[in-house]
Amino acid sequence: MDPNLVTMAQQGDQRAFETLATIAHPRLYRVALGVLRDPGAADDATQQALIAVWRSLPHLRDPERFDAWSYQLVVRACYAEAKRRPAWLPGSTLTEAHEPAVADEMIGVVQRDELDRGFRLLSVEHRAVIVLRYMLDLPLDQVAEALDVSVGTVSSRLNRALAALRAALEADARPPAHSPLSRTST
Length: 186
Description:
Blueprint: H1 3-10, H2 14-36, H3 39-56, H4 66-84, H5 107-120, H6 124-135, H7 140-147, H8 151-173
Helix pairs in contact: 1-2, 2-3, 2-4, 2-6, 3-4, 4-7, 5-8, 6-7, 6-8, 7-8
């Protein structure tokens, strides 16, 4: 982000802030959507983050740190939004994984769907670290700054998140076990 634009917005220039918000909104929304996996929740978190940017911008010490600082605000807004919303919503039930009967060109769609289901099973903290590291391609030190944790904590969360995601994908790939309740008597 242009540090001059940030400085102008810090000094109360409303047009500068509008430009700043217009530029920042898509990337903040992308982070929120990646973490929350729900467009409505991501929109709410992004709006809350932009409100926090507006309120706290005069206190930002280094305008060149705007991007990392705004990531921190959107991740906090995602954490708050995840606490406000129930973990399960009617209609968002995960279906059993069956061997897909699709054409070769649909394999990628099926794999993305499986990855999304596994990603939804992760905690919000684990999703945040994966989104910042792999979707935004931020180095570990910038992820740590955005999450307001140490680099060691980021590495630990990243390792745990990837292990949990791997386990979820492997569990999803296994054929469903037959439940004794599903047997019919003859």
